[in-house]
Amino acid sequence: MHQLTPIEELITLELKRRGTCTLELLAQRLQTCTWNQVFMAVDTLSRRGTIVLRPLPRFQYQVSLAQRGSHAFRPVAAMPAAEGLLVDRCS
Hints:
Layout: H1 6-18, E1 21-22, H2 23-29, H3 35-48, E2 51-56, E3 60-65, E4 76-80, E5 86-90
Antiparallel strand pairs: 1-3, 2-3, 4-5
């Protein structure tokens, strides 16, 4: 399990407390953080599968906590294949 940074903790607590919201609204609610800090933390949390981003109309994104045991995010692991070639395989 990954250790969360303070900003990642703020984001997950905010989503637990208030539920799903847009990325823009999340950034507004976290007034102690810059837009760039929120964006980078959301990117990291999304890649880890902690949160889920869904596109909305007008270039918006909905941010929500991932369901435990969800397969919304499945990291890709490189596996050696025959003859020394690498093949991507979903975990």
